[in-house]
Design a protein that fits this description.
By secondary structure, the protein is an alpha/beta fold. Helix content is about 30%, strand content about 15%. The protein is built from nine helices and eleven strands. The strands form two sheets. The protein has a six-stranded parallel sheet with strand order 7-6-8-9-10-11. It has a five-stranded parallel sheet with strand order 2-1-3-4-5. The longest helix is centred in the middle third of the chain and has 19 residues. The structure holds oxalic acid. The site of oxalic acid has 4 residues, from loops.
Length: about 300
């Protein structure tokens, strides 16, 4: 079965090597801008991060699409034929890495670590000791990532409440009762822009946002306003609406906002290859591939 690799911005070569190491028979082609309709007409499987514009409509034989990520919104394009199953990677190692990143950012914030940077530059031994923090954290999205985040934050002393759209619990009340809000939601039309001026106004003064999901969950201009006004203490954004973030993006220069370039945790090509090949074998046998997302729900 011919598989098209759409891994950009990650180099396809890593995936080809990892897949061929365990499935030498896998028939892989890498996407090129000048790829022809004749080549695409032979493709039965896609492994990728995002569909370049128009490509999904040029795959008449497509039988399965598999994301190289946990989030699938960039493959779930309207032109993807409705009968094509879409799978995602489920990686507990990645979830643990994400949880470590969130714990690092949450602890750095509540322990006031940034307050020691200027004194060190000035060689000033200025102490502001504190007891253990018991800050209240809301984890929005309780899937593989959010669940791991909630467990680790609980283990280091935070009072954690998980929230997901499916529980139907009112988000406003939780935001109002949280010192830190962590976004681990899937990106769907319902969650796009969910963290906006209204949500920030509901969060208590001095509270903090950590986003490890997708940049589009946050209305970034509203966040900048909420931080600049002093209502929010700041934010740690591992993901941004425009990735890679352009040099003139206003988010770079907001005191209190930490930007990292989508590095909180990533699945290894070996993990992706193992899950992909297991799914490919199912499709080759005519069985449904595992780890399918509910296309109507978007995750
Ligand atoms: C993912 C990601 O969704 O890396 O897995 O962002």
């Amino acid at each position: 079965m011919k598989t098209l690799l759409l891994t950009d911005p990650l180099p396809a070569g890593h995936f080809t090597k990892a897949i061929h190491a365990i499935a030498p028979d896998a028939d892989l082609i890498e996407y090129r801008r000048d790829i022809t309709d004749a080549e695409l007409a032979e493709v039965e499987v896609v492994l990728g991060w995002r569909f370049p514009a128009g490509v999904a409509a040029r795959l008449p034989k497509l039988k399965w699409a598999c994301s190289i990520a946990a989030g699938v919104e960039k493959l779930l394009v309207p032109e993807l034929a409705p009968h094509v199953p879409l799978s995602r990677i489920v990686d507990t190692e990645q979830a643990e890495g994400i949880a470590q990143f969130v714990a690092l950012m949450a602890l750095r914030h509540v322990r006031g670590l940034e307050a020691y940077e200027a004194p060190q530059r000035e060689r000033a031994w200025t102490r502001k000791p504190m007891a253990a923090s018991r800050s209240r954290v809301a984890v929005l999205g309780m899937g593989t990532m959010g669940g791991a985040v909630a467990r680790l934050l609980g283990a280091v002393g935070f009072a954690v409440t998980g929230w997901s759209r499916r529980t139907g619990a009112p988000l406003e009340a939780l935001l109002a009762a949280s010192d830190i809000v962590v976004c681990a939601l899937p990106l769907t039309p319902e969650t796009d822009g969910i963290l906006d001026a209204r949500a920030f106004a509901q969060m208590p003064p001095g509270s903090y946002l950590i986003n490890i999901a997708r940049g589009a969950h946050v209305v970034e201009s509203d966040l900048i306003e909420a931080v600049r006004s002093g209502h929010l203490a700041g934010a740690a954004l591992d993901v941004q609406r425009h990735e890679p973030m352009p040099a003139d993006d206003p988010l770079w220069a907001v005191p209190g906002i930490t930007i990292t370039p989508h590095i909180a945790a990533q699945s290894s090509p070996q993990t992706i290859a193992a899950q992909f090949v297991a799914g490919l074998r199912c499709v080759q046998r005519g069985e449904p591939p595992p780890q399918q997302v509910d296309r109507a729900r978007g995750y």
